[in-house]
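User: Structure tokens for this complex, please. No commentary.
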Amino acid sequence: MFTSVDDVSARLARSGYLASPAVATTVFLADRLGKPLLVEGPAGVGKTELAKAVAEVARARLVRLQCYEGVDESRALYEWNHAKQLLRISAARDETWDETRTDIFSEEFLLPRPLLTAIRGDEPTVLLIDETDKADVEVEGLLLEVLSDFQITVPELGTVTAARRPFVVLTSNASRELSEALRRRCLFLHIGFPEEELERRIVRLKVPGIGAALAESVVRVVGALRAMDLRKAPSVAETIDWARTLLALGADALDEDVVRETLGVILKHQDDILKAGAKLDLDAG
Amino acid sequence: MSAEVTDRLVGLVAALRAHGVRVGTGETVDAAEAAAALGFADRGLLREGLAATLLHSAGQRRVFDTVFDLYFPHGVGAPQDEAGDRDDLRDRLAAALAADDEALLARLAIEAVDGLGGYGSSPGSDGWSSHQTLERLRPQTLLARVRDDVRARGGASGFADRLLEDEIRRRIEAFRALVAREARRRVAERRGRDEIARRAVAPTADRVDFLYAGKDRLAELRRTVQPLARRLATRMAARRRRAARGTIDLRRTLRGSLSTGGVPIRPVLRRRRPVRPELVLLCDVSGSVSGFSDFTMLLVQALHDQFSKVRVFAFVNRIDEVTRLLEHGAADPGGLGARIRAEAAVTGHHGSSDYGMALGEFAERHGAAVGPRTTVFVLGDARTNMSDPNLPAVREIAERARRLHWLNPEPRSLWGTGDSAAPEYAGLVPMHECRNARQLAELTGRLLPV
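Assistant:
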């Protein structure tokens, strides 16, 4: 898919995703070694976006499995289309039971869910398993077969093996410890908050029309907030929101009033806002 | 791949394993493949590539970075240029800090260690010291100068100006880390990588000894509280779910069997009344063990919705309730210890800890806090400054409580040495060695009541 790490960064950048060297390297390796990529990091640093961007540059179909508590085999792998099976049975009155029985467990009655869809396709595919940590432990077991051998066993049909390995991205906020077995099958990438320089570029890319000076101040203030040990440090998504807000308010530079009034855009807890306000001397003004 | 590179990679993996990072052979092979795919031209890429293949969680990154620097150093030997003298270095450092030029800072760190960090002259006793380098260079004293320099150039104006000092402080911190890295590399060159990798690598946050953790490591430890608490909470919830299934209720099963002629076809399970356990923490907050009790208090606080009631008492030689200081949102982990000492009556006439007195006072004044549903944790090193350990008080508390556990942040080998009353207490109540976050997580997971 990619020829080099630079190729990854350049092509991702063209699709609007500015990758740090760590991100670009890992994406390159995941493609080269044919291994799934486990991406961890705080909310809003672009984990899901990464999968979307990879799909876009590789001109691949994006298949997404959104995990949640209670997601199970029939949501993740496949289901039998019961209604259609019933119809088939009632439509065929003069057939023998054996004929019907072999018939109703065929491809025609299979409803593929994300994992099977991603495995079966022969076009390039990016499989995004989003918020893996939200799923129950049992689902991890199910993922193991898919991720190590890229195959799925349907008891009635046999084993379906991928004709073409999908590029797999798993994301996690680490709200639950994923199993060691799952981690072993993946390359690990932690996306943290970006370096100042990179974040400035991201802001300017995502918020066109923002001045260089304002973008720089925004990133610096956000950097200072992250150093403050708050309950919820602002992430890239919040930086962008804030930059958009400031632009909409017509501010061309930061001052105390503007910051005080818009702090709620970047900080999500009242005590964080108070703390940041005190540290930034906002009350003086 | 050449034998030399293979050796390095294997050495790196061995060093990682020695520091508690579990790396399998499969990962090592992946790492070699990654190295082959990435090439060795760009050290930064190689670092990311190896990290992606060898690591499994973000907490391991710090150890990895240090070990990587030793096995794949950014250079060998002394720098090419002749190092300037100290004042010249300081001037250039100030300029580099003002410009925030990372590449230049890295070069200056190399020069600084070479010029200022060497000590000794006889083989075997000489080496390179980051401490000595920083002591001579004093980068922290450049703060005002760099600030004025940046301001004079108009590099910061308006609102962002007030952030400048903190930013420069962070840059100086980063520079200090660079110096430490360079000194380690030079030493490793002389003494052998493997030995330095064993000795001079800071452990992952969950293995940092509570008693010896510096300020910055403590801050890092506190950041591990939230994920740790979440993990424990999931585990406890699962355990509670399993326990709630309960046992067979014989009486009701037999009554039900009357309709089937005495054959108990439907077993009836005893329904358990869901009772959330209560928890009482008695924490030694004297200077010597404060890091440990701070951390544990925060952890329990983060777990508080798992219990119907958590009460926390702090003591040095007198005991006082501090539950309100730990209330959600109010807890500022940084100043917690200081606030407890300021706002609660934890010391009497003197400032050293006295377990006997404090535990006695607890049994007497707050005894009602402990009942048959309460689990009590005592947190402290049991160093009671030669005063009476007051064993009857502990026995009394333990008898009132459902369970009492003592967590001791000292290594087991030190229990009973000097003024430690640990063996006496351990004879009465179960005492557990709890030196780092990993042990604490394991212990709390096991000991916390369902």
